[in-house]
Amino acid sequence: MDKAHMLIQEEIKALKLFLSLFYIIFFSYDIIYYFVYPAMNIDDRSIGFPKGGLGFGMHIFMFLLLPIGIYLVKKKNPYVVKYIIFIGYTLIDLLNNMMIYLDSNQKFASGNAVEQFLILFSPLFVNKRYFWLVSLGMIGKYALLGVVLHSSQVIIPIVLCVILAIISFILLTRFKSYVRTITKIFEGAQQAEKLAVVGKMATTIAHEIRNPLTALKGFTQLQREKHPEDAGYYNIMVQEIERMNTIVSELMVLGKPKKREYKLHNIKDILSYVIYIVEQPALQNGITISTMFDKTLPFIQCDEKQMKQVFLNIIKNAIESMPNGGNIIVEANSFHDNQVVVSVTDEGCGMDQEKIDKIGEAFYTTKENGTGLGLMVTYKIIEEHQGEVAIESKLGVGTKVNVMLPVVETK
Ligand code: ADP
Ligand code: MG
User: Fold this and answer.
1) CB of 374 closer than 6 angstroms to any ligand 1 atom
2) Does the keyword Nucleotide-binding apply (predicted)?
3) Is 141 contained in some domain?
């Protein structure tokens, strides 16, 4: 069953309960108040509806709304029914009261228990807008009657409505907070499930990939000894092979974090290394990378390989967002000596909020050859370093990825 359908079913359930209670209370209250009660001669009121009003016309009108409601439910639009019932009731009741009490010397005595029901049961729909409409609408109705009919009698129902509205508000807020928590847990579980799949896949693939990688690394080292003049390139090749190895292992242990090697590092060195690696291929795509580093940056307690991974992922994304070239600015600033902020700004395609919310999910990618794992791994590593990632982006303008890392005091 799809989500929209499930929500509609839930609304229909609430609506059924709401409508049955509404009509039962509405009708039986009037019968008891205007017919049974006076018949018992408890006070000196005469049997029947007050003169001049709509009488049963009001009930007939309200019952006529029922087929409209059923039609809307059939049309898969159950959300408006509660509004129709409330607005219909308020208007017809207002009209009825005006007809009875305006230009008449009858004392204002009106209302139906269904009004209290409407307010008290408004949390049924877990919808704040509906709650506010009902509460304020009902209070407004009585205030209007009070003004038009010059009656202070309306104070009592207004006070009652306010008290009930406060109770409903508390209930509604509780419901909402509960639903939010459940949703969060559920989303977390979904994410965990995805991670479990990644972990399993990676474990299987890792064995297959690791052996050839080991061979590759061995031969590269051999070549490095043979060609000492190119040692610089070979060093990078070896390091990159090691990183491939790390990525695979990373995925394997995504579920259960392994012991990290936290040491003090200068973030400038890490960034320079990453930029050095990507600079050449970036230039070929018409992309220049410039840096703006604070003169003095405090050292960061971090796992070097992982940090390189983080900034490689982020800068690669920036490059990939600019297929037609552009500029990337990598900044590193220190704040109050207890935080280092690294920002990577690109002039690429940018993202809307909906996308920003999604990009940390496993396998979320918009690229043909993307894995959708880069940012997930990035978020996880930064989280393990007690840091934070914040993304600012504008569709068609560009993206700025900020990584905030805490500076641990060392004495
Ligand atoms: P991948 O790069 O394999 O697609 P990522 O997790 O690194 O996976 O990124 C997920 C998605 O986030 C990308 O497919 C892209 O749509 C979006 N994204 C990430 N960084 C940027 C950026 N700098 N500009 C625009 N979109 C981005
Ligand atoms: Mg990526």
Assistant:
1) yes
2) yes
3) yes
d(CA 127, CA 124): 8
Nearest to 48 by CA among 33, 63, 27: 33
Q: What is the extent of the structural domain holding 328?
A: 263-406
Name the domain count of the chain: 2
Angle at 222 between CA 221 and CA 225, to 5 degrees: 90
pLDDT tens track for 349-402: 999 999 999 998 877 889 887 778 889 889 988 998 999 999 999 999 999 999
pTM score: 0.55
Host H or E run for residue 58: helix 56-74
Please tell me the residue having the least CA distance from ligand 1 atom 11.
365
Up-side HSE of residue 216: CA atoms within 13 Å toward CB?
Answer: 15
User: Which residue has the CA at smallest separation from atom 2 of ligand 1?
Assistant: 370
Which atom of ligand 1 is the closest one to the Cα of 376? Answer: 6
Determine the residue type at 115: E
Distance CA(356)–CA(400), nearest Å, equals 11
